[in-house]
């Protein structure tokens, strides 16, 4: 499934490029800037919740890592 996402993380349209099966386990790493300097955190969080809900997550399936960076220099 592919989606076009607006700057406020709203799904504009979705489409399936092809019906496929994947025999490999995938790992996804998500790194977010938590300083609110780019986007409001609530919009990022809502997008990530919808994204992860669409994955088949499990010990022998898709693995997801989430890192939230929030520091001052």
TrEMBL record:
<dbReference type="InterPro" id="IPR002035">
    <property type="entry name" value="VWF_A"/>
</dbReference>
<protein>
    <recommendedName>
        <fullName>VWFA domain-containing protein</fullName>
    </recommendedName>
</protein>
<dbReference type="Pfam" id="PF00092">
    <property type="entry name" value="VWA"/>
</dbReference>
<feature type="domain" description="VWFA">
    <location>
        <begin position="27"/>
        <end position="68"/>
    </location>
</feature>
<dbReference type="InterPro" id="IPR036465">
    <property type="entry name" value="vWFA_dom_sf"/>
</dbReference>
